[in-house]
């Protein structure tokens, strides 16, 4: 009689015949969930990862704008109009001739050309404006919650000036304005996309789920909207905004206008997927189990589209940002005192200004291009990763 | 074929109706109507407002009618008499103002379309045949940049560059001395010297996306057995590629008329405002700001119709090229 052998080890949890290849972790194989697979596929796209990091950084800047900006966006200094960008130097010559570590920017001396009455700035090596991290500068109210005067970077003496990106026609610090503008421009894209997400997903699902005349009407509508050249249409709608409206109202209505024409692509994508999924077995099973249409759409079909929707939405974001920028640039979108990238570009509208102060074009335009590029790369990466079961 | 064209034309009617409604809504959007703003402007300037004239205009334009009656009058005026309404800012009928501007818009858009085709065809073929080569990567890189830079920023940058390094002012479509000059060879050359900036600016985004499409299509086509057979038979490479695969991959070039044209017209609008071209854009913006709504609405209506015509043409051409579409 054999003795029964007891197993003292941990319980076996893997299936008897492992689907896993040897030497591979669990999550790299069929055992992993859909999102894990998507993440794995996405992670291989280095460009998309980098673009995602850039976008996270931009939103970080947008959230902490007050703290990151060295100055207030509206603080104007008439004596420093069109001051050129200053470079940061780390070592300064002390009075006794020795070189010491002192982060600073060099001040300007300025002369006014009597003929053109234009200021010219000359970098003056003897004028040293010491700068540092976590300095006390102009007071602001953080997120409307508490007062503080702490800034990440700035001149040590709060009355000094620092123009790392130059100044505009009123002597306002372009860097600070760009940072505040990031908040408006990046959030307009996000809110606009939320609007078009609701519109696109609702109409796209209705169209794809029901087909027939519902589909017909919605498709005609999409065709009409997408055959209109967008910029004239945006112009037409934005020009109707009463000038008496508050900046906040204008902000929301501009977002709405921009998103009103951005949803068609999303609706088409959702519709196509619905057509494909409508006849899938799991939908039929749910239907036979007595699920109502609303449950079928929202509980069963839409969740399996989430990754696709996310990708399309990311690809739609740059359009919104560009739209806002274009409208504000033309003077019928957001208006000062609101600061957005488009409002900043308004200052660079003619060649003469750009020739005097090229930084007014370069930095805001650079911000727009970087944001748009990053969203495109990120969206492309997400779209490629959205369907992990494709080859 | 005829049946296809007729079906396609019938399909266009509801879309046109929708576009005209959108244009009409935009005309109606600003608070008050044109007469109230006209009256306020006239009283501001100290002019006398003749109540009889005002009443007559109200009757002509039917400002007191219900909205759908107004729409009906407006659209039948356009369709039957070519009457787009009256521009209160210019004191002229809208129809006198728009056609020249729309013509210029169309010409610049077409020039941009030709540019898009001319540039993306060779680059697209090259990219597909030498995939992942240095040239392909450079083309892809510039393509992405072209897609990412908004038209007006590109226009501003080119303006600045040509002002700074070429020393020429690039606004407008003609130099000052040629504006009223009769048509001549020198005038044409001058036009080309001005035209290239808007054409490049407007065409860049379309070029980038068309290169991507052509590259993808041609890559699929190049790996098909008939291409391999042709190569195996010893045909020279340029013949193998140009004779069949390129011709098949060319379909998107034709369908591009449909989806690139709205973008081009949209692009012309804003680029023209920046570069001050005598196209519809600057006039549209000005009309909108001064709430000269019949003028603005007519522009929007015509631009929408123009893209529809573009789509129609591209569909018909596609059907001519591709029998599969014709017989479906």
Textual characterization of the structure:
- The complex is a heterodimer of chains A (391) and B (328).
- Chain A has 391 residues and is α+β, with helices and mostly antiparallel strands.
- Chain A has a domain at 178-386: MetI-like (MetI-like fold), CATH 1.10.3720.
- Chain A has 14 helices and four strands.
- Chain A has helices at 34-43, 46-63, 65-68, 174-210, 212-227, 230-238, 247-260, 263-277, 281-288, 293-301, 306-330, 341-346, 351-356, 359-385; strands spanning 88-93, 99-112, 119-142, 146-155.
- Chain A has a four-stranded antiparallel beta sheet with strand order 1-2-3-4.
- The radius of gyration of chain A is 28 Å and the shape is globular.
- The mean pLDDT of chain A is 79.
- Chain B has 328 residues and is mainly α.
- Chain B has two domains: 34-83, no CATH class; 98-321, MetI-like fold (Orthogonal Bundle).
- Helix content of chain B is 78%, strand content 1%.
- Chain B has 15 helices and two strands.
- Chain B has a two-stranded antiparallel sheet with strand order 1-2.
- The mean pLDDT of chain B is 80.
- At the A-B interface, α5, α6, α11, α13 and α14 of A face α1, α6, α7, α12 and α13 of B.
Q: In percent terms, what proportion of residues of chain B is strand?
A: under 5%
**Count of the separate structural domains of chain B:** 2
Number of helices of chain B: 15
Mean pLDDT of chain A: 79
Overall 3D form of chain B: globular
> Low-confidence stretches of chain A at least 5 residues in length (pLDDT < 50)?
none
The percent range for helix content of chain A is: 40-55%
Shape of chain A: globular
Number of strands of chain A: 4
Proportion in β-strands of chain A: 5-15%
Structural class label of chain B: mainly alpha
Arrangement of strands in the largest sheet of chain A: 1-2-3-4
CATH superfamily of the largest domain in chain B: MetI-like
Distance between the amino and carboxyl termini of chain B: 11 Å
- CATH class categorisation of the domain at 178-386 in chain A: Mainly Alpha
The number of strands of chain B is 2
Percentage of residues assigned to helices of chain B: over 70%
Helix-strand string of chain B: HHHHEEHHHHHHHHHHH
CATH architecture label of the domain at 178-386 in chain A:
Orthogonal Bundle
Report the C-alpha radius of gyration of chain B, rounded.
24 Å
CA-based gyration radius of chain A: 28 Å
InterPro entries (chain B): BPD_transp_1_N (IPR045621), MetI-like (IPR000515), MetI-like_sf (IPR035906)
Transmembrane segments (chain B): 9-29, 104-126, 138-163, 195-214, 253-275, 295-321
Family (chain B): Belongs to the binding-protein-dependent transport system permease family.
Subcellular location (chain B): Cell membrane
